[in-house]
Amino acid sequence: MILLIDSGNSRIKIGWSLNKNGCIHREPHVKIFDNLNIRSLGQWLSCLPKKPNHALGVNVAGKHRENVIENELNNINCKIEWIVAQTRTSILINEYKNPNQLGADRWAAMLGIVEKQKKIHPPLIVASFGTTTTIDIISPNNIFIGGIILPGSFMMRQSLTNGTANLPMSSGESIDLPLDTINSINSGVSSAQSGALARQCIITFKKYNEFPIIYVTGGLWLELEKETRQLINEIAFKSRSEKKTEIIYENRPVLDGLAIISRNYN
Ligand SMILES: Nc1ncnc2c1ncn2[C@@H]1O[C@H](COP(=O)(O)OP(=O)(O)OP(=O)(O)O)[C@@H](O)[C@H]1O
Ligand SMILES: CC(C)(CO)[C@@H](O)C(=O)NCCC(=O)O
């Protein structure tokens, strides 16, 4: 068993891959730990019925977090290898100016998505709505050509509350014409998030003359889904895209990417 660890800025997600008849695949179960409650990771590890031989991880939550996870794994004699973004693998090329600077979670998620594609596919967008929002574009010949980073919707709401006297913390979906503070904030945050995705779709469409398949993930997608689907359908219609727009939710693309890398460890 190989543990797969996605250490994000809010939560740690742990999956595992198993070798079944010579074929490595990721089990669907995922264990999630809040970053504020990292000690329970040690308890969980010590109670595992089967000890992992190895762990593979991505960590974007700083060196201290890396050390804490390593110590917990050491207690059960499990070594971890932290994955960083590469210049290229057999399925994906990374055009970041400094390839290692690209977040390892973004890299792993893109690997997870590219692996699922048929040989010929449209351009792809991988959008993650978590602590931050990242929206990455992959060309039809599997080159990561660029991406954007913005605060996640929770962080946007927090910044409005923390940076002003009058704006409360809010939650909820957007409406078209808000006439009160809460709805104005909800709609502002939601339009920033869906608007960012729409911008990247337009850029992709202009470059390839083909509408991308959009893969979405992250804890905050649910509250953005309605507005985002509407907006993307509108711009696809205006772009006269021949195909129906596809927005596909992926539960754990980062862990899928790590599972692919884990095939080299058996
Ligand atoms: N079930 C949920 N309901 C409401 N908010 C959630 C839920 N799950 C996660 N969130 C919010 O989503 C954000 C984190 O999302 P997610 O778990 O996808 O990312 P993460 O662990 O921070 O990883 P990353 O750093 O990669 O974004 C936080 O702002 C958190 O408050
Ligand atoms: C953008 C985040 C925070 C998303 O989790 C992470 O991928 C990260 O810390 N990236 C490093 C900077 C970059 O990707 O360019």
From TrEMBL:
Binding site for ATP: 6-13, 131
The record's free-text note on cofactor binding: A monovalent cation. Ammonium or potassium.
Keyword terms, alphabetized: ATP-binding, Coenzyme A biosynthesis, Cytoplasm, Kinase, Nucleotide-binding, Potassium, Transferase
Known partners and oligomeric status: Homodimer.
GO biological process, one term: coenzyme A biosynthetic process
Positions contributing to substrate binding: 96, 103-106, 181
Protein name: Type III pantothenate kinase
Function: Catalyzes the phosphorylation of pantothenate (Pan), the first step in CoA biosynthesis.
Cellular localization per UniProt: Cytoplasm
GO MF annotations, alphabetized: ATP binding; pantothenate kinase activity
Cofactor names: NH4(+); K(+)
One Pfam short name: Pan_kinase
Catalytic reactions of this protein: (R)-pantothenate + ATP = (R)-4'-phosphopantothenate + ADP + H(+)
One cellular-component annotation, GO: cytoplasm
E.C. no: 2.7.1.33
Family membership noted in the UniProt record: Belongs to the type III pantothenate kinase family.
Active site (catalytic residues): 105
InterPro entries: ATPase_NBD (IPR043129), Type_III_PanK (IPR004619)
Metabolic or biological pathway, per its Swiss-Prot or TrEMBL entry: Cofactor biosynthesis; coenzyme A biosynthesis; CoA from (R)-pantothenate: step 1/5
Main localization (coarse): cytoplasm
